[in-house]
Structure formats: structure tokens, C-alpha cells
From TrEMBL:
PROSITE patterns registered for this protein in UniProt: ADH_ZINC
SUPFAM superfamilies per the UniProt record, alphabetical: GroES-like, NAD(P)-binding Rossmann-fold domains
Domain named Alcohol dehydrogenase-like C-terminal: residues: 190-261
Record key words, sorted: Metal-binding, NAD, Oxidoreductase, Zinc
Domain Alcohol dehydrogenase-like N-terminal: 30-142
InterPro entries per record: ADH-like_C (IPR013149), ADH-like_N (IPR013154), ADH_Zn_CS (IPR002328), GroES-like_sf (IPR011032), NAD(P)-bd_dom_sf (IPR036291)
Cofactor(s) the protein requires to work: Zn(2+)
Stated name of the protein: Uncharacterized protein
Superkingdom, taxonomy of origin: Eukaryota
Any GO MF annotation of the entry: oxidoreductase activity
Keyword Metal-binding among UniProt keywords: yes
Length: 382
């Protein structure tokens, strides 16, 4: 094995990844750093690519939730030094365009000129190699790398700052949530659980979590939420019955376009939007961190292939609802969420179900994709 290659998780074809030797990343811009990865997570968003439901091309290295130790620095990097422990937002941003300046780093127009989605190895990719590997290159490193306390403490909690903890928080934020309100979260995957946890941290009076996977509903219950199993009966009716007919103040869609029918067998991309419009009170708000795509070659019908979605806009209008959408501006939240972890007020790692070696990634992808054996959130250690 030469010093110029490293082990990485490579996507071969739908439902197949393998560990391969790939070129080790090199500094190519003064603002770059190379990070030796200590923890990298598998994400629900990786599964859209894993299943071949995006434009991803075979041979790419997966991994957009990365943390590790700064190993090499370009001459333009001023805030970091070799040996610093850092975690990176899943979406790469330049830190200097209009959206970055205004705190909306998920919509950086510089690294993302055509406004296709851009992140380290995230859906339509961008030019960056993923971090499910021994090393990862981080561009605009002063902006993108968040410094962490040295040592090994809180490793799993900090790893979740790359995506799901901020994304759950963001889902609650863009719903317009205020302390004391009630929230219904659709989806008890890692993002949904983190949204529910954020709502609790932020002072929600009541939080419902809807899913059909028992282990996931159990996690929701453990943090004080009311689990709703949508495989049993209409989840909207279950929530309204629980509340004596009263709707909730806020709804969060942490499922996205691969939402399924109650038996989990058929995709129904509009089902969550429709449910949220009926379960949220007039003038309440919907936060939609769940992913919707402008084109989905794998979709069942022509409209869905173009990213068109049918939902009751008339009802939405009649109720005066508002809706927040889009990728999470990780940079807007991650240092505060880091500080909540350091202070002992937040411990998001309760959502982590498995920590395995990078070499076991293929098996972990398979099980996580089938949502079996309690695979909720998987951390890989290179
Ligand atoms: N906005 C962002 O920045 C951002 C970041 C990360 C992930 N995401 C997206 O968030 C979504 C959730 O991510 P995740 O990692 O938790 O995914 P996941 O696939 O692990 O979880 C989704 C959950 O939704 C459940 N589900 C399916 N259909 C449902 C329905 N009709 N009603 C209720 N629950 C249903 C599934 O059983 C599953 O547990 C994905 O679409 C992901 O791409 C967005
Ligand atoms: Zn992710
Ligand atoms: Zn930018």
C-alpha cells in the first residue's frame, strides 16, 4: 500500500458499496485542509444515492458527516492548526457570498453556482470527495471546520454536529416554533428524532413522533415524546384523538419524498405534506427538512419524476399556514449546539445505534437501508 492511497467507501452500483483503495486527497488551494477522519456517519441522505435514486455516478466516495484531526493545512488557513479536532458541516460553503454572509450557508452560491445541491458527497455532489475514508479534504477550511475541545470526549455527540442534530434543530426552526408550543414530527429516522429532541430542548409542551419502525418509535418515547405508529391507523386521527380534536401548533416533515404508505411497501411522495396540512392549526407552521428533489428518475409517475408534488394547496391557504423548506444551514447552529454538548445540556448520541469499523461499511449500509436490526444511526471509524 503506498502513502498516496487510502481506504474509502466507494459506491459501485445500486445497493452495493465496497471498501477500496483510492487516491489520498491533496491540498489544491491555499484555504484547504486535510483532515484525518476519526468518525464519519452513514446518513439517510446517503441512502437516496445508495439506492440509485439520484444522479450519483458509480465510483464516488460517500460520506458527508465527517470529523477528525487536522493533518495538513494550506498556507491561507489562519484559524486552525495541525492537531486541531474539528467537525465539518455536510454542506460545503465559501463563507463570503451573499447567502453565506447572511447565515444561509446551505445556499452558498459560490460553491454551488448552478444551484444544484452541493456538499461533500451529498446527492448531486459538487466537486468534493466524501469522507467515509481515512482522509478528507475540506475547502474554505477556516469557515467550514468547527473547532472542538481536544481529546476523545463526546466523539459521537460531536459527530452528529455535521448534519442530523443541526438539521433536526433547523426543521423545528423553519416551522416557526416558539417555546410552549406543540409539535408533530413525521419520521423517526435520525433527523426526525433530532427534530423531536430539539423541540424538547427548546421547550415544546408536547411532541408527537410518527413512524412505523418500533425501535425508532421507542427512541422517541425514551426522550419524552408520544410515539404514533402510522402502520396501525391514520396518524392524523391518532394525534387529533389524543388532543381531544385540537390540532398541533407546528409540524415537521423529517421523511421527504421517499415517504411510504402505511404498510411501508409503496412510495407516496405527497403523503406527509398532506398529513401536516391537516394536523397543524390555522396559522401554524410546517418545517420541511425532509428531502424533495427537482428530478427523480426512479419515481413511479411522470410528475414525480419532474419533482412535481400534488398537495392540498387550497387547504394550506385557507388555514393561513406557512412553510419553511430546504437544506440545513449547519453553520448557523453548530457552534451553539457544540456548546450545549460541552455544557452537558444536550447529548444527541442517544440516537446512535451502531459504531463499526469503516471496513464493515457494506454490511452497515445494507442493514441501515433495510432499517433492520435496530440500525438507526451508524458511525464508522476508519
Ligand atoms: N434538509 C437537510 O438539510 C437534510 C439533512 C439530512 C437529511 N435530510 C433528509 O431528511 C430525511 C430524513 O432523514 P433520515 O436520515 O432521518 O432518514 P431515514 O430514512 O432514516 O428516516 C425516515 C423515516 O421516515 C419513516 N417514514 C416513511 N414513510 C413515512 C410516513 N408516511 N409517515 C411517517 N414516517 C414515515 C421511515 O420509516 C423512516 O424511519 C431524508 O429525506 C433526508 O434526505 C435533509
Ligand atoms: Zn447526512
Ligand atoms: Zn458562499
Amino acid at each position: 500500500m503506498s502513502n498516496d492511497t487510502m481506504r474509502a467507501v466507494v459506491w459501485d452500483k445500486p445497493y452495493k458499496v465496497s471498501i477500496q483503495q483510492v487516491p489520498k486527497p491533496k491540498l489544491s488551494h491555499p484555504d484547504d485542509i486535510i483532515v484525518k477522519v476519526t468518525t464519519t456517519c452513514i446518513c439517510g441522505s446517503d441512502l437516496h444515492m445508495y439506492e440509485g435514486r439520484t444522479g450519483a455516478e458509480s465510483g464516488i466516495v460517500f460520506g458527508h458527516e465527517n470529523m477528525g484531526i487536522v493533518d495538513e493545512l494550506g498556507p491561507g488557513v489562519t484559524l486552525l492548526k495541525k492537531g486541531d479536532r474539528v467537525v465539518m458541516p455536510f454542506n460545503v460553503a465559501c463563507g463570503r457570498c451573499l447567502n453565506c454572509e447572511e447565515g444561509r450557508s446551505a445556499f452558498c452560491t459560490h460553491v454551488n453556482p448552478g444551484f444544484v445541491r452541493c456538499a461533500t458527497s451529498y446527492v448531486s455532489m459538487g466537486p468534493y470527495q466524501g469522507g467515509q475514508a481515512e482522509y478528507v479534504k475540506v475547502p474554505f477550511a477556516d469557515f467550514n471546520a468547527l473547532k472542538l475541545p481536544p481529546g476523545k470526549e463526546h466523539e459521537a455527540d460531536f459527530a452528529l454536529l455535521a448534519d442530523i442534530f443541526p438539521t433536526g434543530w433547523h426543521g423545528v426552526e423553519i416551522s416557526g416554533f416558539r417555546p410552549g408550543e406543540s409539535v408533530a414530527v413525521w419520521g423517526a429516522g435520525p433527523v426526525g428524532i433530532m427534530a423531536a429532541y430539539s423541540a424538547i430542548l427548546r421547550g415544546a409542551s408536547q411532541v408527537f413522533v410518527v413512524d412505523r419502525v418500533p425501535e425508532r418509535l421507542k427512541k422517541a418515547k425514551e426522550i419524552g415524546c408520544i410515539p404514533i405508529d402510522f402502520s396501525k391507523s391514520d396518524p392524523v386521527k391518532q394525534i387529533l384523538d389524543y388532543r381531544g380534536g385540537k390540532e398541533v401548533d407546528r409540524g415537521v416533515d423529517a421523511v421527504g419524498y421517499q415517504a411510504t404508505t402505511a404498510d411501508g411497501k409503496t412510495e407516496q411522495p405527497n403523503v406527509v405534506l398532506e398529513a401536516l396540512i391537516s394536523v397543524v392549526r390555522p396559522t401554524g407552521g410546517l418545517g420541511i427538512p425532509g428531502l424533495y428533489v427537482p428530478s427523480d428518475p426512479g419515481a413511479a409517475d411522470q410528475n414525480a419524476q419532474k419533482g412535481y408534488m400534488s398537495f392540498p394547496f387550497g387547504k394550506f391557504f385557507e388555514k393561513g399556514l406557512s412553510m419553511g423548506t430546504g437544506q440545513c444551514n449547519v453553520k448557523a447552529y453548530n457552534r451553539y449546539l457544540r456548546d450545549l454538548i460541552v455544557a452537558g445540556r444536550a447529548k444527541p448520541s442517544f440516537v446512535v445505534s451502531h459504531e463499526v469499523s469503516l471496513d464493515d461499511a457494506a454490511d452497515a449500509y445494507d442493514k441501515f437501508d433495510r432499517r433492520v436490526d435496530g440500525y438507526t444511526k451508524v458511525l464508522l471509524h476508519p
